[in-house]
Amino acid sequence: MNASISEMLRANCECEDVTKCILGLKDLDLQAYKILLANGSMTAEVLGQHLSRERSTAYRSLQNLISCGLVFREAKTIETGGYYYEYVAVDPSEVKKMVQESIDKWYQKVSSLIQNMDKEFIKE
Fold it and tell me: At residue 9, does pLDDT exceed 90?
């Protein structure tokens, strides 16, 4: 469960809490990212084994991670024909930039809303 901003300010929140909140990730998504980061690229099936979950569950987490930019996939060719995908975690420094950019955009939007707050309260 994502904490509200006021809850996060009162609590001893950690980097993971902020990352999950800002990027809209679940615990399992962040765990999958960490596994990829520590072990290098892998297939959804192998990631599922590391997570002790079904491949389909690992794949859903990978899709969440891809959609927010923490993971990308690479096609690997099979010598006998065909291909498969391996998933790769982006460097944590890139994640840091993404989180900071999201916070900056959010701050600008909220600041703009606050500037008009009095008008909105009066409006019917």
Answer: no
Q: Which two tokens stand for residue 68?
A: 């927010």
Q: Which residue matches tokens 């960490």? A: 34
Tokens found for residue 38: 């520590």
Left, alpha or beta for 43 (phi > 0: left; psi -120 to 50: alpha)? beta
Q: Report the C-alpha gap between 36 and 23 in whole angstroms.
A: 18
Contact 18, 99 (CB under 8 A): yes
What are the tens digits of pLDDT across the range 28-64?
999 999 999 999 999 999 999 999 999 999 999 999 9
Distance CA 95, CA 64 (A): 14
Q: How many whole angstroms separate alpha carbon 62 and alpha carbon 51?
A: 12
